[in-house]
Amino acid sequence: MSSELARRARRALSRVFDLPPPVCDFVVHRELRVPMRDRVELVADHYAPHTASPAGTLLVRGPYGRGLPFATMFASFYAARGYHVVFQSVRGTFGSGGEFDPFVNEVDDGADTAAWLRDQPWFTGTFATIGLSYLGFTQWALLTDPPPELAAAVITVGPDDVSGPRWGAGSFGLNDFLGWSDLVGRQEDPNRVRTLLRQARAQRRVTSASLRLPLAAASRELLGDGALWFESWLDHPDTDDPFWTRLRLRDGLERAEVPVLLLTGWQDLFVDQTVEHYRMLAGRGVPTGLTIGPWTHGDMMTKAAPTMLRESLDWLATHLKGEPPQRRSPVRIHLSRRGWLNLPDWPPAMPSLVLHPQPGGGLAPGAPGAADATFVYNPGDPTPTVGGRLLSPVGGYRDDTALARRADVLTFTGTALASDLPVVGVPVLDVAHTCATPHNDLFVRISQVDAHGRSRNVSDGYVASAPDSGTVTVELDPVAWTFPAGSRIRVLIAGGSHPRFLRNLGTGEHAGTATDFATARHTVHLGEGTRLTLPAGPPPPSAD
């Protein structure tokens, strides 16, 4: 594309998405060599704006290459608005030296890149970081020991702890991290047609591998010679294992003082971490913004892109360029059927609505007399994943009517609501529960049932290695959801959600090498001890 056509395209996109227009042209200096402390060199592209008064400098570090779509979203867009942008491929990817070991080297490599940046003749004196997902993790890595020139960060769906998503619920996030390993391990295949065909079949191949035993051998057959890290993840099931230390960056949350903008979606894999990031940073008095929209992880570069770009420009203008703040409130959330709310904090104060599962499958405010409901979880035919917080395109809000009808799922459905019911916050389900085997998991879900009987997921929770007796308290995903008048609230309880979470084989054997499985008979004791608590009532006022 010619430079003139590219300029016109950028202006057209700005009009379509209601974004500030480009202010300058830019030139790209490609494949700059950035030295690390161990003499490995990482490759970066420098987007230099044609302006005598640059807006500032941005650093972007990631493993997915420096081409489309990342170059457009995180480099050329900002360069055309006056920012110098350094877009670097992390160690072992797309021309950068060394070996790619996911997440392991980002603290040191990020610090060395910042040291190189301050010595460049065009450097503006301060810089900010931007990026999503892994490109967000690299920002947390830099924040563990923030360089003095770092002035702001815009972190989109970015985890600080990647031991958590794998084992945070006590169960391996199999679908996401096997699928991610398959994608990243083969992403530099020069045969683009073969790569595209493989990606089209990826979910089917991952699901097939996830059902075979032993899992380590099945994953190796899927991954081939690539992604050697995956089996090492399987080999360390304990989150307290020192193996995970370099992948857990809590220091960034404890040391960061620069203004941080956090963007995520209600159906993003990392939304729980992002909410915790906000609470920890804001609680220490760090200038922090939190935006949560009706998005999945994959939506952030499509449906969410206009919001992400617009809010990032406002944040950078305030904290790099020194312009007056544009943000109306620290927290901005999307409440379904109501739109955007500007809030002073998260979570907002909400009334509590308590509902009890009833004998016969009902859901009502009053606790029933003592009664039991049972189901059997069979690892040989595991309860399937339907929607939810996934990296893959099959996640998000989905029709889960068929899931609710399965024999291995307990379903409790309320009566039709007389009026709209907003739920804003973190639902909690207490389950009085016993299981015939000590090796068992619990998956719970809140869904919405429409007037035609169709059900759609709203919020999930998961507890692995649940106790074989007693009350299990499950915190579900944070939500901002309006159940419309005429709809019904539904609670689902099951023994797994495969392949989102690694199925519990019921034997206690090692996850990677186990070859046998045993069924688990679950009993939920209905009554006062089993109840759903919803933060529900009139929506919090918006500071519009």
Overall description:
- There is one protein chain.
- The protein is built from 14 helices and 23 strands.
- With 544 residues, the chain is of the alpha/beta class.
- The protein folds into 3 domains: 254 residues, Rossmann fold, CATH 3.40.50; 79 residues, alpha-amino acid ester hydrolase ( Helical cap domain) (Orthogonal Bundle); 184 residues, Sandwich (Jelly Rolls), CATH 2.60.120.260.
- Strands 11, 12, 13, 14, 16, 17, 18, 19, 21, 22 and 23 form an 11-stranded mixed sheet that branches.
- α3 crosses α4, α6 packs across α8 and α8 runs antiparallel to α9.
- The chain is globular.
- It starts with a helix and ends in a 9-residue tail after the last strand.
- The model has no long low-confidence stretch (mean pLDDT 95).
- This is Peptidase S15.
- It holds the Pfam family PepX_C.
- It comes from Mycolicibacterium gilvum (strain PYR-GCK) (Mycobacterium gilvum (strain PYR-GCK)).
- Keywords: Hydrolase.
- One of its GO terms (molecular function) is dipeptidyl-peptidase activity.
In short:
By secondary structure, this protein is α/β, with parallel strands linked by helices.
